[in-house]
Amino acid sequence: MTDLLVTLTNNLIAWVASGKTYGFQHMVHWIAKATTHFSVGNYFPSFTWMDRLSGLLREADEIFKESDDLFEGVIEEHVNKKDFGIKGHDLVDILLEIQKDKSTGFELERYMIKAIILNMYGAGTDTTSTSLVWAIGELLRNPRVMKELQQEAQRFLNSPMDYIGSHFEYLPFGAGRRGCPGIKFAATINELVLANLAFKFEFALEGEHSLDMSDTDGMTAHKKYPILVKATLYE
């Protein structure tokens, strides 16, 4: 289930950001896994040599080189869209237009465009797919809630609670100037994916597997163990 949701969210982001899918799931997974490593140098700069000794800096360099090459290819394809058969107008096109526009008052360098694309793929794929995995896990753990969702037995359209910063007991996207810029995009994907899955399928744990809701360390709280489910058409 986890791999399917990662692929789904990555492909959706790819279509919006770059007009086609590129299969960057392995890169997103690599980056997410690398963030779980503890960096001594981040806290004690004089001990950065320990990160080099542990291989952490070497891995960071490898990630940078591969991602830089990948996104260089994406940009080149958009610069020469006709040759690569890319249609439509996406985020990369907009960034390239801003780069050419000299009236903006700032220079948008190519490395900046690559960084923005990386943020779109990395942050968007990892957080959204992880949220979906946790949501499905909670629904499996609470069959009554799953049934209510499938039957649309409860609604909360007029709830005073929101997730955009007004209620500090519930801040999945942060708030203020440092709030998540992809809040509407993520909320839309989460709602559409969960609604379609609940509407079309019945989910049950596969075989004798139990549902362990332990999480991992890192920038994003992933489930420690994958969800192994069996899906049948909902009637």
From TrEMBL:
<keyword id="KW-0408">Iron</keyword>
<dbReference type="GO" id="GO:0004497">
    <property type="term" value="F:monooxygenase activity"/>
</dbReference>
<keyword id="KW-0349">Heme</keyword>
<protein>
    <recommendedName>
        <fullName>Cytochrome P450</fullName>
    </recommendedName>
</protein>
<dbReference type="InterPro" id="IPR036396">
    <property type="entry name" value="Cyt_P450_sf"/>
</dbReference>
<dbReference type="InterPro" id="IPR001128">
    <property type="entry name" value="Cyt_P450"/>
</dbReference>
<dbReference type="GO" id="GO:0020037">
    <property type="term" value="F:heme binding"/>
</dbReference>
<dbReference type="InterPro" id="IPR002401">
    <property type="entry name" value="Cyt_P450_E_grp-I"/>
</dbReference>
<keyword id="KW-0479">Metal-binding</keyword>
<dbReference type="Pfam" id="PF00067">
    <property type="entry name" value="p450"/>
</dbReference>
<comment type="similarity">
    <text>Belongs to the cytochrome P450 family.</text>
</comment>
<dbReference type="GO" id="GO:0051762">
    <property type="term" value="P:sesquiterpene biosynthetic process"/>
</dbReference>
<dbReference type="InterPro" id="IPR017972">
    <property type="entry name" value="Cyt_P450_CS"/>
</dbReference>
<dbReference type="GO" id="GO:0005506">
    <property type="term" value="F:iron ion binding"/>
</dbReference>
<keyword id="KW-0503">Monooxygenase</keyword>
<dbReference type="GO" id="GO:0016705">
    <property type="term" value="F:oxidoreductase activity, acting on paired donors, with incorporation or reduction of molecular oxygen"/>
</dbReference>
<keyword id="KW-0560">Oxidoreductase</keyword>
